[in-house]
């Protein structure tokens, strides 16, 4: 059976979706339904329990697994505090560690992310750290007790696809815990590509939220992730850099045998 | 090095001479680029770039969507004190103006905060005039501690402090810094700031450096457009934000685009900044700094603000009063300037939704 287990939970979908950037949060239930996603991430900084105004949590179906992220944290200490706050607010014990101290490219700080993961994993959190794709960081995260690693495909929000493909492939090949490709996936075809490469799952937000029809786009991603996973299991045919000619140049060498 | 040193390498550039060297081809290639530098930014402020406004707007819209999605962050200003020792020619709080002066007591701050919080807002910006006796650093800290009970993010727009003082107010719960240089041209700065500690151009110019060094989470800056040639001032403001973003990469930088409004005062040499020019400025900021905040306040009219929504605005004020105590209105004072968009928080919320955007009430919490 093709199972994806994270934090002891067998997940029924390999597409994780984010809840930021939507024009109106009331579209989120339809997006989640059409994406068939089970793991839903939201920035804790946006969550407003007991809000007089709208609260993103009101739009996430009960049966989903909440993956609060530590967006806004600039170092390990802040990420740890946000994670603990999330738990105290009733968001469960899953957390996506996001530590960004670079406001130009918005690239994650791998070193601080490892530190935060060590602390939170020991406290019993199911930790999914968001990283720049670096093998040694990924290995340290495994040692630190991460439940999965989430390397980026290209800078967050850019919709530029799998620009870090070579590095992602190394992590997928070398790391034994689930690898969830996060950030930069702009098209369903790119999600399929990540799955074909062997990613365990992908996380998509901007590409769905900023599409003209987020609900349809969610459905397209659901299909693409499934297609990519099936292709991975079926094993892709070998790639060749040359065409296989019907009259090969060296065919004469075998003629004598005929 | 501070921004003062950085800016000294640019302030003598004759921007109009530079504009003469630009061709349509230059503007076109700048629009097509992914990351632009400070001179390309200046080119976008040129008269020639005016012919490309729609194209620049499309690019700015796309960048804003990529970085912020369809969201607008809401906040409101709260004036807690208007005692002021400065004589600024363009401001109603000018020490010489005979207006009612007041510094709210902590009970009044609490009442005002409760009234604002009832509208659902979670981000507050509180303001004072410059008076180290009537609104001291200790007073600022006390206000922050009261506001902490009601809000998730607290910003200050007060007189410039030292690094140690910014650290003190941060420890009291302030996470955002806001200060407008008013005018970057040093000569004009000296002319419009007639007397008071605000005459110290450099101490104010370097205040954002100090706030960032004190680890504020966000820093907002800007020029009061209309005090001097807007192209030069927008260039200086953009450089300032660009410098801060590159120097303090863990601080969220935002730029305000205030145009001077009618006020009680004497300064009447105000230059006109047209709607078209304001849009050009905002779009140029967006292309230079794709993920920095852009704030548009109620100095602008309702219709104009609504039309700016898709162009890259990220923060808007709502339910605004510029009077001390204005949110509870019992003992309020004279206003700092007249506002042009008096919509309440719920009216703003609806207007943003009507434009296909999501009003965001909460985007931070104290950790």
Detailed description of the structure:
- The complex is a heterodimer of chains A (258) and B (367).
- Chain A is globular, with a radius of gyration of 20 Å.
- Chain A has a 5-stranded parallel sheet.
- With 258 residues, chain A is of the alpha/beta class.
- Chain A has 8 helices and 10 strands.
- With 367 residues, chain B is an alpha/beta fold.
- Chain B has one domain: TIM Barrel (Alpha-Beta Barrel), CATH 3.20.20.70.
- In chain B, 39% of the residues lie in helices and 14% in strands.
- Chain B is built from 15 helices and 11 strands.
- Chain B has an 8-stranded parallel beta barrel, surrounded by 5 helices. Chain B has a two-stranded antiparallel ribbon with strand order 2-6.
- The longest helix of chain B is centred in the middle third of the chain and has 18 residues.
- Classes of the chains: A alpha/beta (258), B alpha/beta (367).
- At the A-B interface, helix 2 of A face helix 5 and strand 11 of B.
What is the structure about, briefly put?
The complex is a heterodimer of chains A (258) and B (367). Chain A is of the alpha/beta class and 258 residues long.
Number of domains of chain B: 1
First-last Cα distance of chain B = 31 Å
Radius of gyration of chain B (Å): 19 Å
Task: Please state the second-level CATH architecture of chain B.
Answer: Alpha-Beta Barrel
Helix-strand sequence of chain A? EEEHEEHEHEHEHEHEHH
Assign the structural class of chain B, choosing from mainly alpha, mainly beta, alpha/beta, alpha+beta, or little secondary structure: alpha/beta
Which architecture of chain A does the CATH hierarchy give at level 2?
A: Alpha-Beta Barrel
> What is the 3D shape of chain A?
globular
Beta content of chain B: 5-15%
Q: What's the SSE pattern of chain B?
A: HHHHHEEHEHEHEHEHHEHEHEHEHE
How many E-type strands of chain B? 11
């Amino acid at each position: 059976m093709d199972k994806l287990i994270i934090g002891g939970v067998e997940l029924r979908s390999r597409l994780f979706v984010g809840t930021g950037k939507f024009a109106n949060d009331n579209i989120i239930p339809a997006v989640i339904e059409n994406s068939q996603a089970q793991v839903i991430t939201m920035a804790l900084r946006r969550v407003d329990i007991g809000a007089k105004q709208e609260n993103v949590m009101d739009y996430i179906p009960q049966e989903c697994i909440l993956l609060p992220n530590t967006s806004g944290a600039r170092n390990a200490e802040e990420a740890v505090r946000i994670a603990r706050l999330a738990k105290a607010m009733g968001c469960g014990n899953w957390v996506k560690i996001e530590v960004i101290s670079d406001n130009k490219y918005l690239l994650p700080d791998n070193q601080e992310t490892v530190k935060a993961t060590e602390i939170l994993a020991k406290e019993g959190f199911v930790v999914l750290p968001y990283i720049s794709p670096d093998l040694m960081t990924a290995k340290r995260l495994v040692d630190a007790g991460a439940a999965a690693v989430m390397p980026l495909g290209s800078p967050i929000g850019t919709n530029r696809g799998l620009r870090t493909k070579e590095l992602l492939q190394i992590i997928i090949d070398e790391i034994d815990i689930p690898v969830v490709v996060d950030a930069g996936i702009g098209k369903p075809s790119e999600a399929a590509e990540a799955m074909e490469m062997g990613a365990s799952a992908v996380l998509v937000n901007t590409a769905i939220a900023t599409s003209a029809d987020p609900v349809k786009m969610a459905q397209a991603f659901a299909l693409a992730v499934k297609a990519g996973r099936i292709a991975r299991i079926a094993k892709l045919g070998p790639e060749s850099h040359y065409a296989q000619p019907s009259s090969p140049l060296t065919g004469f060498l075998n003629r004598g045998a005929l | 090095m501070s921004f003062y040193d950085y800016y000294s390498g640019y302030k003598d550039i004759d921007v109009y001479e530079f504009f003469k060297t630009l061709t349509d081809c230059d503007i076109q290639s700048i629009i097509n680029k992914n990351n632009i530098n400070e001179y390309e930014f200046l080119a976008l402020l040129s008269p020639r770039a005016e012919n490309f406004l729609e194209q620049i707007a499309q690019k700015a819209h796309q960048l804003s969507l990529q970085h912020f999605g369809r969201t607008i962050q809401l906040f409101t200003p709260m004036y807690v004190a208007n005692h002021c020792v400065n004589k600024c020619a363009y401001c109603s709080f000018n020490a010489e103006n005979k207006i009612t002066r007041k510094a709210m007591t902590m009970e009044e701050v609490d009442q005002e905060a409760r009234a604002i919080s009832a509208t659902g807002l979670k981000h507050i910006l509180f303001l004072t005039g410059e008076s180290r006796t009537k609104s001291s650093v200790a007073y600022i800290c006390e206000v922050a501690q009261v506001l902490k009970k009601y809000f998730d993010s607290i910003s200050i727009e007060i007189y410039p402090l030292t690094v140690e003082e910014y650290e003190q107010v941060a420890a009291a719960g302030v996470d955002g810094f806001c200060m407008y240089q008013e005018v970057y041209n040093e000569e004009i700065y000296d002319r419009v700031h007639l007397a008071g500690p605000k005459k110290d151009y450099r101490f104010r110019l370097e205040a954002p450096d100090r706030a960032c060094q004190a680890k504020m989470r966000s820093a907002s800056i800007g020029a009061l457009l209309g005090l001097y040639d807007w192209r030069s001032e927008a260039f200086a403001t953009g450089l300032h934000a660009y410098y801060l973003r590159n120097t303090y990469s863990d601080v969220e930088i935002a730029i305000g685009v205030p145009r001077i409004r009618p006020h009680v005062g004497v300064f009447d040499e105000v230059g006109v900044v047209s709607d078209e020019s304001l849009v050009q400025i905002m779009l140029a900021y967006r292309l230079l700094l794709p993920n920095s905040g852009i704030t548009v306040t109620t100095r602008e009219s309702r219709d104009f603000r609504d039309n700016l929504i898709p162009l890259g605005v990220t923060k808007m004020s709502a339910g605004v009063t510029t009077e001390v105590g204005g949110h509870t209105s019992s003992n309020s004072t004279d206003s700092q300037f007249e506002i042009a968009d008096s919509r309440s928080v719920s009216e703003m919320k609806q207007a943003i939704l009507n434009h296909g955007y999501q009003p965001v009430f909460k985007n931070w919490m104290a950790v």
